[in-house]
């Protein structure tokens, strides 16, 4: 109807009808006075003006009717649909909300050694290259989208995030080594922290998905070496010294709460149900492709079951206080029924036990540009006294780090981590294990960072892990694409075909070292 009215209005304006009417009226009133003719002409001019205004209104209505509904709705809120928001970030307005695209790209050139020179077992040395070896590594690189959607009168907003790892220097796919195999495609969509939930500035946020646990995030700001050689995850929250960081990890199929800051205080709490049909958690959790311990059944030449650190339900909690330059925090995490029966030659159901971690940390930023960080941590595995001889996972950990800002663009960083001695040790390829094994270790790390601008930066760092005789802590745990650990080049083949088979072999007591130069870009 609107279109027809507009067409008729345009036709009237363009036809000679108006002129004919004027001429007829002028002829009929030829004997009228001149002032009456002028008055009639004014009325005709007013009529033509009204017709023109009507045509303009009809054209505007027709154009609006052709717009998509979402664009009309967004425009009514003052913004076009997917209009770019002003600022440094890549954020767009949506229908009643916002969507942001973000990322971190980090790649480095490294050279590292396992430090196993001179070791032998029965006169046989470690297999393969265990000295210095150069590499290119992608470190904690990812892209993601996150957004918020207003829900009208509802007292919270809908929030969401989808994040995936980006392997810049390597092909995406499942990860595997001679000692660990995972079916998770880390470069797959939503392989990293991803969730949906509800959030309000008044009461906090409730989210469902997968995320870095509160235990991990509580002290993340105290780790200036995140993703580098010498990341504090080499020792902190790492119970056995492998590349898997048991209590500094991401938890799948989880639900968690994040409180607002009230007077500087805040808490975060997470629950991840076990979803495991096995009483001993030896099955894959329902809906997952890896055991809860971070590998597939049979990884590393072990029996084909989830018996190398798989657990049931997980609980993680942290609390913190921030006031200007001061930040203090405490955190606790519990893993129920951790199955480590592969550590024993014969199955023992008592080797399915709870494991927990607790820590306190403090950070202070001085006016001089100096930041000091300190963490104390306790790790415990609650096995019976009869299994204490192989309990390498009950120990203390310490972290001390100092950072100094130098000018506007440069900073220097030093870190030291210490793993205390555990009650026992299951033994490695070159150690007998047992009670009193010297499995303590120290890690030292140095880094220099130069920030070109808010997005682009360069860094150089050196790190070394000095294992005592029975320890096997690595170098590079916590998110690096290339890590250096205790394993030589032997593999799980037991057919006799491969001369380097009958592995993997972990050599304890290594003195691992590495140097790295990298580039990092965030957006």
Report on this model:
The protein is 13% helix and 37% strand. The chain folds into 2 domains: 2-66; 90-522, Porin (Beta Barrel). The model is unreliable at 16-32 and 67-76 (pLDDT under 50). The chain has 523 residues and is mostly beta strands. The strands form 2 sheets. Strands 2-4-5-8-9-10-11-12-13-14-15-16-17-18-19-20 form a 16-stranded antiparallel β-barrel. Strands 6-7 form a two-stranded antiparallel sheet. It contains 5 helices and 20 strands. Helix 1 runs antiparallel to helix 3 (34-65). The two termini are 50 Å apart. The chain has helices at 2-14, 17-28, 34-65, 69-76, 214-217, and strands spanning 90-94, 97-113, 133-138, 142-149, 157-165, 174-176, 181-185, 194-200, 204-212, 250-258, 265-272, 314-323, 326-339, 352-365, 370-381, 395-406, 410-419, 441-451, 456-467, 511-522. A hairpin with a 3-residue loop joins strand 16 and strand 17 (410-419).
Question: Would you summarize the structure shown here?
Answer:
This protein is mainly beta.
Set down the secondary structure blueprint.
Layout: H1 2-14, H2 17-28, H3 34-65, H4 69-76, E1 90-94, E2 97-113, E3 133-138, E4 142-149, E5 157-165, E6 174-176, E7 181-185, E8 194-200, E9 204-212, H5 214-217, E10 250-258, E11 265-272, E12 314-323, E13 326-339, E14 352-365, E15 370-381, E16 395-406, E17 410-419, E18 441-451, E19 456-467, E20 511-522
Antiparallel strand pairs: 1-2, 2-3, 2-4, 2-20, 4-5, 5-8, 6-7, 8-9, 9-10, 10-11, 11-12, 12-13, 13-14, 14-15, 15-16, 16-17, 17-18, 18-19, 19-20
Helix pairs in contact: 1-3
